[in-house]
Amino acid sequence: MPDQELPPSIFHMLERNVGKKVRIILDPSYGFDGTLIAVTGEPAGIWLSDAEAIVLRSTMAQPIPQVASREERSEIFLNLHSVQRIEVLHPTPSRR
Fold first, then answer.
1. Residue 16 has what pLDDT?
2. Phi-psi group of 2: left, alpha or beta (phi > 0 → left; psi -120 to 50 → alpha; rest → beta)
3. What confidence category does residue 2 fall into, taking pLDDT thresholds of 50, 70 and 90?
4. Could you tell me the pTM of the whole model?
5. What would the 3-class secondary structure string for the chain be?
6. φ and ψ at 53, to 5 degrees?
7. Which has the closest alpha carbon to 50: 67, 31, 32, 25?
8. How far is 95 from 37, CA to CA, in rounded Å?
9. Is 25 or 74 the better-scoring residue by pLDDT?
């Protein structure tokens, strides 16, 4: 049987995004925005710099959660066992 390339693990996918802005959702109404600076395997987690704690709110009129408030946190470690979702934030192009 020929060698098959294994799919990348979550750690490989996260390591590709080191240095990028990410949003980490811990539960439907709370999370963090920041720059991904490191990924650790033991304990399984990620480090964010320039982090901000965010509160997310949704309504019946606007069901997609929106950031309602922010609070600066500087650097923070998040255990991957408590993370529900990770989003890579792409910079918005400036309008002319």
1. 93
2. beta
3. low
4. 0.80
5. CCCCCCCCCHHHHHHCCCCCEEEEEEECCEEEEEEEEEEEECCEEEEEEEEEEEEEECCCCCCCCEEEEEEEEEEEEEEHHHCCEEEECCCCCCCC
6. -75, 135
7. 32
8. 29
9. 25
